[in-house]
Amino acid sequence: MDQKESVPTVPRRRAQGLGRERILEACLNLATGTTPDALSFRKIGKELGADPTALYRHFADKDELLLALADKVISMGMIGYVPAPDWEESLRDLMLRIRSSFLQYPQVATLAALRVTGQGGELQFVEAMLSALALAGFSRHEAALVFRACGDFMLAWTGFSAGLLLLGQKSEQDDAAWVSSYDQVAEHDFPLAVTSVREMAAVQDEENYQFALELLLGGIAARLQH
């Protein structure tokens, strides 16, 4: 996203004390909702009471702003983190707390959760994950593989979950449509699918994530025994 977002020419207004942190806080206020394109420069400018073009004095483009936002959300998720004596407990904590932080701001999660920020919050998270894996006894190479698997698992699922939050009621309607469509299928042709669909559709996203996380952690622990 190299091109600056197009904004209309309007009389400039001077916002007092406008800076990166104030802009990021305004973005987080907007990102808690489900309004489409909530993080457009026009809407951010309105939230700040400033000309949207003023944002370019602090961020080169929208991409830079999104990366800064993503890193701030990660930093917020790391607040209060203390490594546990058990590596598995530390991994679980890290992968739940960063997910939880992103899901408070679904607009940020869908736009930037899968990006590399290269900034302080991300570096703190990466260091904590690798420290837990070193404690477990993984070699540097194995730790890198496990880290990628865990990080990609958490971020990809979180982006998906944020998308569900933004869909809102439409997501529930999709689950209902799943059940009703299988009701039209002959049970003798697909007996397991037809008889299990209601139980599958009833599984909530967070329950699903935590179950899958335990499967992942169990696989990592089993790998240590080889």
Explain this structure.
- By secondary structure, this protein is mainly α.
- It has two domains: 1-60, Arc Repressor Mutant, subunit A; 83-224, Tetracycline Repressor, domain 2 (Orthogonal Bundle).
- It is 67% helix and 0% strand.
- The protein is built from ten helices and no strands.
- Residues 1-15 have low confidence and may be disordered.
How are the elements arranged and paired?
Blueprint: H1 20-31, H2 41-48, H3 62-78, H4 87-103, H5 106-112, H6 120-136, H7 140-167, H8 169-182, H9 191-202, H10 205-224
What top-tier CATH class of the largest domain fits best? Mainly Alpha
Secondary-structure-derived class: mainly alpha
**Rg, nearest Å:** 21 Å
* Share of residues in helices: 55-70%
Summarize the structure.
Residues 40-59 bind DNA. The chain has 226 residues and is mainly alpha-helical.
Highlighted features:
226 residues, mainly alpha, Arc Repressor Mutant, subunit A, Tetracycline Repressor, domain 2, 2 domains, 10 helices, 67% helix, 0% strand, flat
